[in-house]
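Re: the 188-residue chain
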Amino acid sequence: MLTNKRWTNKEWKIKCARKDKSYYLTIIKYIKEGHALAETGKKFGLSRERIRQIASKHGVDINLLIKNNLILFRRSVPYRMCAECLNEFNNNKNKRRLFCCIECRLKFKIRFSLHNGRYTVLNGKSIIIARKVVQDCLGVKLSRKECVHHIDGNIKNNHIDNLIVLDRKKHASMHQQERKKKNLQLQA
């Protein structure tokens, strides 16, 4: 039966007398491999303070290792596998993170987007292809207030003759009128 018991000084001295030097060297080796103090303590059944004592007794400065990021102060979080490139990445900051980098997230988004074929990646950013075509043709970057409208309604037809630039309000009202026409046709 395992207990979470704290040892008194006398009990600890008796317990340590049974352990040889190789036991402590194993603990030191485990710390130097980069394992967190809490993780090391759990493995060997010791408190973090006791691990610090053992380390200082054997000439290892825990504070220096923590400062130089050679060991983690907190328990280490397991590595995750990227959903796109299948590389392992450290998941310390966000437990729900699925991708190792922004590029992988954008690639995945583009592949499984509802508007597949509508986006492309340029310099690590997701860009609507129609917008890029118009910007290249005009030689001017479009503002956020400007939208690109497909005349025939097919968002995959990015030919320059099929694209016009509108402000957001005009674009929204245009689509609203189209929806009203479709609803009237369906009702009739």
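The mean pLDDT is 76.
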